[in-house]
Amino acid sequence: MMYSKKVMEHFMRPHNQGKIKNPDGIGIVGNPKCGDIMRMYIKVGKNNKNEEMIKDIKFETLGCGAAIATSSATTDMAKGKTFKEALEIDRNVVADELGGLPPIKMHCSNLAADALRRAIEDYNNKKKKNVK
């Protein structure tokens, strides 16, 4: 199984790895079959159009090289994006960004996109509770 140069770069030197203190949203996903577990943390801000956007994003991933690479690439793509733009990041967008993934590793890009989605959902759910 061969990984692209970009997958290897993100695996060897992951971007945005770590934890955000007091995150606005957390997305946690896992795949029991392969054992990969991902946590994605977001901090929310507003852009110059006063739209909510991802001001900062970090991840913690326990998993294979592809899982770490897709987490890293997903955070790069989501940072600075509005929620609408970030929610357009799906498994195919992540795989394309990395120059492709072996078919057996495509589920990893799904996990990263799902973790991002869950972090945004978590933020929105917390916000609704605080509005009451």
Provide the descriptors you would attach to this structure in a database record.
alpha+beta, Sufe protein. Chain: A, 5 helices, 132 residues
Q: Explain this structure to me?
A:
- The protein has helices spanning 5-12, 65-78, 83-86, 91-97, 106-131; strands at residues 25-31, 36-46, 52-62.
- Helix 1 (5-12) crosses helix 2 (65-78) and helix 4 packs across helix 5.
- It has a single domain (5-131), classed as Sufe protein. Chain: A (Alpha-Beta Complex), CATH 3.90.1010.
- The chain is globular and about 50 Å long.
- The chain has 132 residues and is α+β, with helices and mostly antiparallel strands.
- Strands 1-2-3 form a 3-stranded antiparallel sheet.
Quick overview:
The model has no long low-confidence stretch (mean pLDDT 92). The chain contains five helices and three strands.
Give the secondary structure arrangement, pairings included:
Blueprint lengths: L4 H8 L12 E7 L4 E11 L5 E11 L2 H14 L4 H4 L4 H7 L8 H26 L1
Antiparallel strand pairs: 1-2, 2-3
Helix pairs in contact: 1-2, 2-5, 4-5
